[in-house]
Specification:
The structure holds two protein chains of two kinds. By secondary structure, chain A is an alpha+beta fold. Chain A has 16 helices and 17 strands. Classes of the chains: A alpha+beta, B alpha/beta.
């Protein structure tokens, strides 16, 4: 029983001091190793939350969290192919439309999401015009979050049964994740545009882009996304709001295979041109990669690690590994950011999209120190980027083994968001994100930074404390 | 002119804020200053001194309040500016001290995975959480904080024991691990005596006297004052005994506590009697014969505890007792200038156990001893701020430390109280404890000198004489240096005795001569 105490007696004393600083100074003056914690009370006055917190420091929780971060750390996403959504995603019916974020009904959907839904219905040929589509949307369509179908979608995240999707496999755990291909910027479906040019582009993507990429991937074999993301982080991407490097790396990987496909030179050139002209093409690869890393953590009992963060433009929702299938939601926040000329905060939709799966897995805003070029979005300096990442180490369990940040001495990215730490420190996850116009079809109006509402974490924590086996 | 500044979500620890408040009160034209966090207690304190502001209703424990009262409007601005400076000075200094500001135990453990002990001194309501974090991470804990509920204490100790970890506290002021004094403790040489103590100043006194007697200690494990209660059942003391029994450097074990709950007393004594090493037990105010029934060595005072332990350890005779004729001489000289009506003893103690010990022996000789923490509940003072007859006060008790630092750090109330006592013409003796060592005031003797001299003069003016008797608890190796502290006291006319017990014996002798 006293073995640990006897061990202590034979070790050199090494102290962590929490509270009164003079105790630390006394130790330093005696040349005793001491680290002082600049402690603050938990950043909440809510008594339920504090008592939940007290109940959640147990061996079971620690053990579960270790398991979860091990799963995240072991995640090995590979791009293995492309397919048509209804053929490859289990359970997707003709009348199903997937959307970003936590569950939301048609009547509560934000402008851009409604627009994208209408576009999706028209693209599927389910309605002859917009009026018809609207009727259908309000009565006949089954809406579900992408996350409930192993999928993720940027912004409105609309995924309809005929859309081609990337198939990403987590090699370590065998699970699959899906995402549509990125359409580019401007008037696009994910920002709620549903005019003829949007449908025309989607049709081209289905008819030409998809078969060419599918064939070239078959020629090439799978592409290791973990390696690609790790390299992109060292080339100035954080793989959420900046995907220049990831897109370029992907292009290099696949271009020779594209050239080898049996399509016309003109068709192949158009595909290469399309990828090359869209810096965000890689986002729709980093997202399913992150999703495939996170999904195996769902349902690890007692874990307080965040397994999902997602927004639908109305609600922000999180899920935690220990409570499979439960969303903890609060009103979606406004994004603080830089607006394109002619737009202002008044034009902005509330926070939207599944792309925050990147932050959940430890990249995106969490890897901001890797992407000094984008701090301009928040009018900041490169040192701000480093500070954002540094802060995230305070709310995460471990540092990534594969994703590293050169500017921090190749330190691994902060990984495994612990709900308890978020509540205690009051530090919220930092998310890099695009800003959609609040009206359907206008498109992106800016980009910036956002954090989830604290309420999501408080709700999750209280539920965890009720349901965790003590 | 009043002003209240509120800074939301700006946290400072209470010790820093008290220091700043004290400093700010000394600024010119300032009547009163309170810089504190917006806890319910602090807000009440503010209202008590008529700082009323509706905004205070929305202030929480994470919000900083700066309340300033000055003689004129101009001084308000100057003062608030100066206080802001004091606050930021601290911020800059702490920023520069660390590469990355560590804000949580978990982050600190990430930075230093080899750390083996966490000292926790956060406000009591948060202590459970921080302690549990440290224990879950497999670290031993010294929990200095008080105001931890007994259920929380039990929960933490149960968990700690299940993992074989020390959970010293709550309200554990004193521990020495691997020769390192933690919180309030003295620089004691390494030696063969291991102590498990449920009383902070009791442990300090015993360990210091062990050092004075030429021996030393292996470990001093603090348990917190409630460890031997019915509810806790001596969990930490039992773990401590087992650890010291298995520790090759410990030859003698010393146990110090107030008398335990009956069932716990038996458990502890049975365990101690099975110990393969000699055990000296001191239950302050307890019945010695109970201990002796278990064939253990009992001691009647803290001093005797040290003496017996050292005699076992070093196989030599040790004594702190002053030669009877010498004592007589001192007593005679002290009483010679007293007037006929002087008869009462007033003890102003910073150490709770030292206070108890004094009451115990004086009560035996003189009956009723009044106190804020009396041994006999019939002797509770009506008003703790007003002494009656023979009174011994524990200035470290909650009532006197609300919103203030402990008297071992902040001597201001003891000084004030001594001046109040000096107005009482029936007082003959003032008893003081001067506790030095790590954690304590940098110069506790020095901080009392001026007041002692003034108090003595008050008596002289009335043709009386005030006898001030003190003992310094500490060692030569302490930062304040025992001999230097004693020299300062003697210079001010204080009679310095080698232990609290000896000081009490002298007081008893003097009072006896006055009756």
């Amino acid at each position: 029983m006293s073995k640990n105490v006897i061990d202590l007696f034979s070790q050199e004393l090494s102290v962590i001091n929490v509270g009164i600083e003079s105790f630390h100074k006394d130790l330093i003056s005696q040349n005793v190793h001491s680290l002082h914690v600049y402690w603050k009370p938990p950043a909440t006055n809510n008594k339920d939350v504090i008592s939940a917190l007290k109940s959640l420091y147990t061996d079971d929780v620690e053990e579960a969290n270790r398991k979860v971060v091990e799963i995240i750390s072991n995640g090995h996403p590979k791009l293995i192919g492309l397919g048509i959504a209804k053929d490859v995603i289990p359970g997707l019916t003709e009348k199903t439309i997937l959307h970003a974020g936590p569950p939301v009904t048609w009547d509560r959907m934000c402008g851009p999401m409604r627009g994208a839904v209408l576009g999706g219905i028209l693209y599927e040929g389910l309605a002859k015009d917009v009026n018809d589509a609207e009727k259908l949307a309000s009565s006949k369509i089954d809406f579900h979050p992408c996350h409930h179908f192993h999928a993720v979608g940027p912004m409105a995240g609309i995924l309809t049964p005929s859309m081609p999707v990337w198939i990403v496999k987590n090699e370590t755990y065998g699970n699959l994740a899906y995402a549509t291909m990125n359409e580019g910027l401007g008037k696009v479906l994910r920002f709620g545009a549903f005019g003829p040019e949007v449908i025309v582009r989607l049709n081209w993507m289905q008819d030409e882009l998809y078969p060419i990429l599918k064939q070239s991937l078959e020629l090439k074999g799978s592409i290791d996304l973990r390696v690609l993301i790790a390299q992109a982080l060292q080339m100035g991407d954080e793989c959420h709001n900046r995907n220049k490097a990831l897109t370029s790396l992907f292009y290099r990987e696949l271009a020779p295979a594209i050239v080898k496909t049996d399509f016309s030179n003109e068709q192949k050139a158009k595909v290469l041109e399309f990828i090359n002209s869209n810096d965000h093409f890689g986002l729709n690869l980093s997202m399913p990669a992150a999703k495939s890393i996170m999904e195996p953590t769902e349902g690890i009992d007692n874990s307080t690690i965040v397994s999902t963060m997602a927004r639908n433009g109305t609600d922000f929702g999180i899920r935690v590994a220990g409570l499979k299938g439960q969303w903890f939601t609060a009103a979606s926040p406004k994004v603080k950011g830089l607006y394109f000329p002619g737009y202002s905060e008044n034009d902005a939709a509330l926070d939207l999209g599944d792309s925050v799966i990147t932050e959940t897995s430890g990249i995106g805003g969490f890897a901001m120190a890797a992407a000094p070029a984008i701090v301009g979005f928040v009018g900041g300096k490169p040192s701000d980027a480093i500070n954002y990442t540094e802060k995230m180490y305070h709310i995460t369990m471990v540092e990534s083994r594969f994703f590293q940040i050169p500017a921090l001495g190749f330190r691994g990215t902060p990984t495994g968001i612990d709900v308890r730490k978020v509540i205690e420190t009051g530090i919220l996850p930092i998310i890099n994100t695009g800003i959609a116009h609040k009206d359907a079809g206008v498109g992106q109006v800016g980009a910036g930074l956002v954090s989830p509402p604290m309420e999501c974490f408080e709700k999750a924590l209280v539920s965890l404390s009720k349901e965790c086996k003590m | 002119m009043d002003k209240i500044i509120i800074r939301k979500n700006t946290y400072y620890d209470s010790v820093s804020l008290m220091t700043i408040s004290e400093k700010a009160k000394l600024l010119s034209n300032v009547t009163d200053v309170v810089v504190s966090m917006g806890t319910e207690t602090n807000k009440e304190l503010l209202r008590d001194i008529n700082f009323n502001d509706e905004r205070l209703n929305d202030v929480g424990p994470n919000d900083l309040i700066i309340a300033i009262r000055t003689e004129d409007e101009k001084s308000i601005e100057e003062t608030s500016k100066k206080i802001e400076n004091m606050l930021t000075e601290k911020e800059i200094k702490s920023e520069a001290g660390e590469d990355i500001k560590v804000t949580s135990i978990q982050y600190a453990i990430k930075q230093n995975p080899d750390s083996n002990l966490v000292i926790i001194s956060v406000p009591g309501e948060y202590a459970y959480l921080e302690t549990k974090k440290a224990l879950v991470a497999g670290k031993h804990v010294t929990l200095f904080s008080d105001n931890v509920t007994i259920d929380e204490e039990n929960d933490l100790k149960e968990y700690a024991v299940s993992k074989g970890l020390l959970m010293m506290g709550p309200d554990c002021g004193t521990a020495i691990i691997n020769n390192v004094p933690l919180a309030f403790a003295n620089a004691i040489p390494r030696g063969p005596i291991g102590i498990v103590g449920a009383s902070g100043t009791g442990s300090q006194e015993v360990s210091s006297l062990i050092a004075r007697a030429g021996s030393g200690i292996s470990q001093l494990i603090g348990t917190g004052g409630r460890d031997l209660s019915e509810k806790i059942g001596g969990k930490m003391m039992l773990l401590g005994i087992e650890a010291l029994e298995n520790d090759p450097d410990t030859k003698i074990i010393v146990l110090i506590s107030k008398p335990p709950a009956a069932s716990v007393m038996e458990k502890i004594l049975v365990r101690a009697s099975k110990c393969s090493k000699p055990v000296v037990v001191h239950f302050i105010g307890g019945d010695k014969s109970v201990v002796e029934k278990y064939k253990l060595t009992a001691a009647k005072s803290l001093e005797e505890t040290a003496v017996k332990a050292v005699e076992f350890a070093e196989q030599k005779k040790v004594s702190f007792t002053i030669d009877e004729s010498e004592l007589e001489k001192i007593a005679n000289s002290e009483t010679s200038r007293m007037s006929k009506n002087q008869k009462y003893i007033r003890g102003l103690y910073s150490g709770g156990t030292l206070c108890d010990e004094s009451m115990l022996f004086l009560q035996k000789s003189f009956g009723r001893i009044f106190s804020n923490t009396p041994l006999d509940k019939n002797c509770k003072l009506n008003d703790n701020r007003v002494s009656e007859k023979d009174t011994i006060i524990d200035l470290g008790d909650d009532e006197f430390t609300k919103g203030k630092a402990h008297p071992m750090i902040d001597p201001s109330y003891r000084r004030l109280r001594l001046m109040i006592e000096s107005k009482d013409t029936e007082v003959s003796i003032v008893l003081l404890d001067i506790v030095i060592g790590y954690g304590s005031h940098p110069d506790p003797a020095g901080s009392m000198l001026e007041t002692v001299v003034t108090a003595k003069k008050e008596f002289e003016k009335r043709g009386q004489y005030l006898s001030v008797i003190a003992s310094v608890c500490g060692t030569e190796a302490d930062p304040q240096v025992l001999s230097k502290q004693e020299a300062k006291l003697r210079e001010a006319g204080v009679v310095c005795m080698p232990s609290n017990f000896q000081a009490v014996m002298l007081a008893e002798k003097i009072k006896g001569m006055l009756l």
